[in-house]
Amino acid sequence: MTAIGFSPLALIHASGTLRAADAAAPEVEPVVRAAQSGDLAAFGRLYREHVGRVYALCVRLSADRVFAEQLTQDTFVRAWERIATYRGESSFAAWLRRLTINVVMAERRVASRRSRRVALADDETLAAAPLDRTDDTDIDLERAIARLPEGARTVFVLHAIEGYHHDEIAELTGIAEGTSRAHLYRAREILKKELT
Known about the structure:
Elements: H1 8-14, H2 28-36, H3 40-62, H4 65-82, H5 92-117, H6 123-126, H7 141-146, H8 150-161, H9 166-173, H10 177-195
Helix pairs in contact: 1-3, 2-3, 3-4, 3-5, 3-8, 4-5, 8-10, 9-10
């Protein structure tokens, strides 16, 4: 168990995607309304229902399970702060998915600004290590996805796993649609090479 009260390893594989949760049960909406009026127990229920999917998305976007726990916490803190802005125009899961992606992208921008201020001693030591290959036929797709370059990984996760279209990815990430398509192509080519 972690500080946020769940076992991330158990949740990542059983969680599915937030996009798949868009067709959530109709009883969620009264819980959302209760949470909007300040009911902590109702917000706790929303947390329990969605934490696994939020964590899985954070892991896939960040490629770091420990950092994903922090991002998950940040997402739910932000959700509590902004739940009053949820208008019900889409499912709560869709709103939360968008909020999660915004939290991850904001953290990337902060990290990018921070890294530009720090002089890196040796760029070569920071390069991603090649995927450990074994003779086993059991290929760890999650690990291969985690090793993709950041832009390619983000687009691959949003498109192939979460089901976003390139125009939506472009809007979420602030890149052009063509760049999104190029990142997806690059991700697929790298994965084909790594997994064959």
